Amino acid sequence: MTVSRQSKISGVLATLTVLLSACMSPPGPEADKAAIDKLPRKSLQLAAGYSLSYLESGAPNGRLVVFVHGTPGDARGWSDYLLDVPDGFHYIAIDRPGFGQSGPDGAVVSLPEQAAAVAQVIRAQHAGRAILVGHSLGGPVVAQTAADMPELVSALVILAGSLDPAQENVPFVQYLGDTWPLSAVLPRPLRNANREIIYLKRGLDQLAPRLASISVPVVIVHGMKDDLVPFANVGFMKTHLADASFAVDAIPAQNHFLPWNAKSHVMAAIAKAASEAQP
Description:
Blueprint: H1 3-24, H2 33-37, E1 41-45, E2 51-58, E3 63-68, H3 79-82, E4 89-94, H4 111-125, E5 130-135, H5 138-148, E6 153-159, H6 172-177, H7 182-185, H8 188-207, E7 218-223, H9 232-240, E8 246-251, H10 258-261, H11 263-276
Parallel strand pairs: 3-4, 3-5, 5-6, 6-7, 7-8
Antiparallel strand pairs: 1-2, 2-4
């Protein structure tokens, strides 16, 4: 490989890494690392042929709430919630397929496959229907779960959810980052996040007409200064989730990272969903 070509590849890689890291690096939980490390971790072999890892806390037979992170991310991002579970609740936070300690090594860009993983976790608890909490790309994953397996979902809490396909604009450098050799040298979380974002619009186009079938309570929390997932997504959800009981908490001057920057709003949204959902 010539020096010139190496230089170009290095430049694209640096640009892509900065772009993905700057746009998708959340503040992280406030909880002490030692406390986070003590959270019980389990794994489940999925029908898709790989294992799914998750953290859990609370009452084993309590009301089930499943947390679904965005891209990149992992279950540990929800640690502040798992370490402060309300009485009578059972909290589970998953490492989505392709992230954390879950398989596979590569990205799972199919929203239905991601939803099937969430559904298998719910079924494994033998606890009836679950409240699903999804942040960012986790938003369409929980919506897909509710559309595909309505018998497993009692309510949705969507935090800064990216559901409007019209809002998905992928910079050209990200397409370059999905090609060899650039993709081979990106860290797994960034490589898989990059691929998920590239394919997200296609999945949202397929999901959009099915949102009308969702009839469970939906609580939306969205920052009005979110420059990663525009606030326009809220209007899209209002229009397409027409049969759902719908509530919106629009937070002025708040950014994309609601699970860490707006915890009181998130906890209030979960409580509202629980109060309106059928067990």
